[in-house]
Design brief:
18 strands; Nuclear Transport Factor 2, Chain: A; 303 residues; alpha+beta; 5 helices; 45% strand
Length: 303
């Protein structure tokens, strides 16, 4: 008479364990393609680049650059919705709608099955190809990209600046939609502060050239005829009476810093073996060289 309740209790226990196992399996089951597409869109709307990129299936992305660009986006997509999903084995297609730059858009997100679950295919990002009439780079947010090649970006509205930023001006706003290929043609101009910034570089170079030395510094435009008066040179010191004034060539391929006045004092031993000190003055001290806009820098090279 006591065996029946015992069997019932044991049987109930088996049922409870089976239900618990089903719940655990459901909780641990990777999300399906619709949930992944929705999570991806939600991350884009919320400006969460880290989460969005974690949902993209690609080992070749440079997340640091993409995140730096996305952090500078002027607007993200909004009103994003997955309107349908079609699965086909290990791939799926999600149809989506969204708003970007006050314009309604629609498209498709391709998803693929990976060892860690469903992921958005790389074309869930967009690309922009930047061209520039001056320089070899452009800046988006704090990220600097090369020109003339597609740049992968998370969907958003971006302002693209000519680089070097602060030296060149000229910016364009570009909408990058999911799976789209946008273009941006920059036509930079020198900023009002470009000459001032470059002059600071020249001044730093002048300071290095005129530091105390035991030989005439090379690539400094300095000529000291100490050998006319000294058999051996022990030290050189300089006094800059007038710093050279910087000017850019019209085609921005070279520079000239001219009109400098430099006084050099040379100490050493004369030909009769006595110590001697002689002073030389140059009223036309100049520096000349090339200039290139490389990455986010203006690089001056002295001939």
């Amino acid at each position: 008479m006591k065996r029946g309740p015992l069997i019932a209790v044991v049987a109930a226990g088996v049922v409870l364990l089976a239900v618990a196992g089903l719940v655990l399996w459901l909780l641990q089951r990777p999300p399906g393609p619709q949930a992944v597409a929705e999570d991806y869109l939600r991350a884009l709307v919320g400006g969460d680049a880290d989460t969005a990129l974690d949902l993209v299936a690609s080992d070749s992305l440079d997340p640091s650059l993409i995140e730096a660009a996305f952090a500078g986006a002027t607007a993200t997509i909004s009103d994003a919705e997955v309107t349908g999903v079609i699965e086909d084995g290990e791939t799926a297609t999600a149809t989506i709608t969204y708003t970007l730059d006050s314009t309604s858009g629609s498209g498709e997100l391709m998803l693929q099955q990976t060892p860690t679950g469903w992921k958005v295919a790389p074309d869930g990002l967009g690309t922009v190809t930047i061209t520039s009439t001056l320089g070899d780079a452009a800046a988006i947010g704090t990220a600097v990209f090369g020109v003339n090649e597609p740049v992968l970006l998370l969907p958003a509205l971006y302002e693209i600046d000519a680089a070097p930023v602060g030296i060149l001006t000229g910016a364009l706003t570009v909408a990058v939609a999911p799976g789209s290929a946008a273009t941006a043609a920059l036509q930079p101009q020198l900023s009002d502060t470009a000459l001032e910034t470059a002059s600071a570089q020249v001044q730093a170079y002048v300071d290095a050239c005129t530091a105390p030395a035991d030989a005439v510094p090379e690539n400094c435009g300095i000529r000291v005829p100490w050998a006319a008066d000294l058999a051996t040179l022990t030290s050189l010191s300089f006094r800059v009476e007038t710093a050279p004034t910087l000017a850019f060539a019209e085609d921005l391929s070279s520079f000239a810093a001219t009109g400098g006045v430099l006084v050099a004092t040379a100490s050493g031993t004369t030909r009769d073996g006595a110590p001697g000190t002689f002073t030389y003055r140059s009223d036309d001290w100049s520096l000349r060289g090339g200039m290139v806009f490389s990455g986010n820098q203006l690089v001056l090279s002295v001939d």
